[in-house]
Structures are given as C-alpha cells and as structure tokens.
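User: I'm preparing a small set of examples for a lab meeting where we compare how different chains pack in three dimensions. I only have the primary sequence for this one, and I'd like the structure in token form so I can line it up with the others. Please keep the answer compact; I'll paste it straight into my notes.
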Amino acid sequence: MVFVSVRIITGDVARLVSFYERATGVRAQWATEDFAELTTASGALAIGSTRTVPLFAPGSARPAANHSVILEFLVDDVDSVYENLSGFVEDFVNEPTTMPWGNRALLFRDPDGNLVNFFTPVTPAAIEKFAR
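Assistant: Understood. Below is the structure token output for the 132-residue chain.
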C-alpha cells in the first residue's frame, strides 16, 4: 500500500488552493475547476469542491467542519517560515514552539479552519527520524 494524498473538501477551491500555494511555495496542478493537487516528494494535498462529494456519496463530507485532523509539513526552518507567513496567515494557533518530541512547530488555520502544522526537527532523535 502507498499513502498518496489527503483531500480537503471546500466551498471555495480557488481560495484554498491559492492559500496553500502561498503557504507552501508549491504550485497546484488543476484537473478541473473543482479539483487541484499540490504535490510534494512524499505525497499530495488534494483540494476538491463540494460539487465532487456526490460523486462518492452525497453528504459524506462537509467543508470547514474538520476538528480532528492536522495537516503536517516538514520545513527546513520553521522560524523563517513563520516570519514569511506573518501578515498572510490570519489565524496562528501558536508561534514556533519546541515540542517534547523534538520538533519546533508552528500551528495555524487555513481559511476553512483546518489546522496546519509546519515543523522542523531540532533534537538529534527528531533530526534522525526525518533525515532526507
């Protein structure tokens, strides 16, 4: 099995794609006006319109209703990323903070309220875990 992507369902695909392009520096590939993907070396963040939900099962997903998932991105320098996103991100949950498990993490919300964590490993064990 290969983990391929996470998909966010939204009422405004263009707005959310634009946000993630700016936040990550990754350009989206658009399949249709209702679906785009931002692809990295390890997987993709897919963004789909509410109009795509009935193709799977009507009512099976609702936009801006996530209260349990955090999207996580490994970055080279979370403090620099924080400086770069200041003035752009409207809802920082915390500033860069070193976590007990060895990552320096920045938590914020995207325009739909989804939690996003940008992190940089800073302890030897965390650095080894995420060595690229």
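A couple of notes for your slides: Residues 13-24 form the longest helix (12 residues). The first strand starts at residue 5 and ends at 10.

User: Perfect, thanks.
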